[in-house]
Amino acid sequence: MKKLQHSQRFRNRIKLCALFILCAVSPALKAQEEQRKTVSTHGASVVTKSVIIGYAYSDFCISPRSDVKTNFTRIGFSPTMIWKLTDKLFFESQVEFNTDSGRITTVVEYAKLSYIYNKYITIGMGKILTPFGTYTERFEAPFIERLPNTPLGFRHLEDAPNIGPVGSEMGIDIRGGFQVGDAKMNYDLYVTNGARLNDGLHEPKLAGAIEYENFFDNNTNKAIGCRVGYLPFSNSSLEIGGSVNYSKAGDAKSVYKDILARAFSADISYQKAIIPMKTLLNIKGQINYLDVDKASYLNELGTAYSFDNTSDIYYVRISLRPALIKNKYLKKVELLGRYNSANFAKEALWGGLTTRTDIGLAYWLSVSTGLRVAYEFTNYADGTTGEIYLVRFVTGF
Q1: Which end of the chain is flanked by fewer CB atoms within 10 Å, N or C?
Q2: If phi over 0 gives left and psi between -120 and 50 gives alpha, with beta otherwise, what is residue 273?
Q3: CA atoms within 13 A of residue 27's CA, in its CB half-sphere
Q4: 7: helix, strand or coil
Q5: Beta carbons within 10 angstroms of residue 340's beta carbon
């Protein structure tokens, strides 16, 4: 009996101590909660929202004319981080990790802080995807692009430059859109570090070529550019766009300091459901034209030469997908054809006309995951030809 009484007194003491601790701590917890609410209300501390999206892919190729006929060539992983700091302020950035030709690379594809001024104007600054045409900004991401390769001239290749600002640049942009009756228009205005002229000092074969993706400018003059898009139909099935970009490309205090690079682009995007065929038709295309002031360069032998420095590139892609039929397998198949042309300055060491035909198939496992297969046949500027089969497995998340 005494043991039971002792045990009961012990439990009562434990309860009393717990009650005392709770009474002592509660005011502090309440004060802390009120302080959090007060600080949040006054804006000194803001609860932010963030999300991570992105894509990953793996490539395989078959090269019938090469000594090594099959190869797992490339893998890539690109997380995109988006932070909503306030209702009007947000930050986004994409980092690309990949292996290409046995080399591991890490690149900040873009990183931009944006402010929504109103529903017509958004201002952004940082490393921006240059709004020149539509391919780079809208369609190049592997989980969006239906083919496992990039159109000719839209990415820098060995001994061949890209034509026009088709990557990302350091700068500031102002963008938005508005209604025009039943139609719509959108615009992008930007100022960036701009073009850099390759004078051939370190790469004689690329003398006269223009490079755009510059972290630091080589002169005080900045590039000025814009793109305007027009969507004439109320369902936005068709968009026609035009772009311009002007910049001085030569190094400051060099003989090339006043060399001007003028770039122009036109793009089109059209999609339509063909009801009798239960098929979706998708057409994409873009043409870039680059005109650079004429100048004199030195070749590998030290001899001076000059040339008419104008180049143009374009691609047209058509795809058909029977997405409206009932067969759950066939509706996931998309047939594609793309014609590519890169007409580089004829008299340049890197000049000449190269064309390529891509025939492909995309099988969609989900809205952002699928298998891409393509056959590409290339006619090179030197008269030779090449062919390769490409396979890509890609997922967006």
Answers
A1: N
A2: beta
A3: 4
A4: helix
A5: 22
Regarding whether 38 and 179 lie in a shared domain, the answer is no
Q: Quick check: is 83 in a domain?
A: yes
DSSP state of 30: H
**DSSP string for residues in 93-129:** EEEEEEEETTEEEEEEEEEEEEEEEETTEEEEEEEEE
With respect to residue 9, please indicate whether it lies within any of the assigned structural domains: yes
- Helix, strand, coil percent values for the chain (each to nearest 5): 15, 55, 35
Question: Whats the size of the chain, residue-wise?
Answer: 397
Considering the domain boundaries, does residue 100 fall inside one?
yes
Are 98 and 31 within one domain?
Answer: no
Q: How far apart, in whole angstroms, are the C-alpha atoms of residue 276 and residue 380?
A: 41
* Structure tokens given for 60: 């395989």
For 275, the token pair is 């009801």
Which residue do the tokens 């995807």 mark? 129
pLDDT given for residue 38 in this prediction: 37
For 18, 110, 243, the CA distances from 128, given in Å and listed in that order, are 58, 5, 16
Alpha helical stretches, state H, the chain: 2-42
Scored b (16 or more CB within 10 A) or e, 58-91 reads bbbbebeeeeeeeeebbebebebeeebeeeeebb
Q: Rounded CA gap, 265 and 371, in Å?
A: 31
- Summarised one tens digit per residue, pLDDT across range 41-78 is 444 455 678 999 999 999 999 999 999 999 999 999 99
Match 């054809």 to its residue by tokens. Answer: 337
Express each pLDDT in 170-224 by its tens digit.
999 999 999 999 999 999 999 999 999 999 888 889 999 999 988 888 899 999 9
Domain coverage including residue 111: 78-332
282, 308, 332 - which closes a domain? 332
Q: Stretch 377-389: mean pLDDT, rounded?
A: 95
The pair of three-digit structure tokens given for residue 170, joined into one six-digit string: 């350091």
pTM summary value: 0.85
Cross-strand bridge partners of residue 330: none
Angstrom distance (rounded) from CA 114 to CA 106: 24
Cα distances (Å, whole numbers) of residue 349 to 156, 260, 381: 16, 20, 11
**Do 174 and 123 contact (CB within 8 A), yes or no?**
yes
Q: How many CB atoms lie within 10 A of CB 323?
A: 15
For the segment 288-315, the average pLDDT, to the nearest whole number, is 93
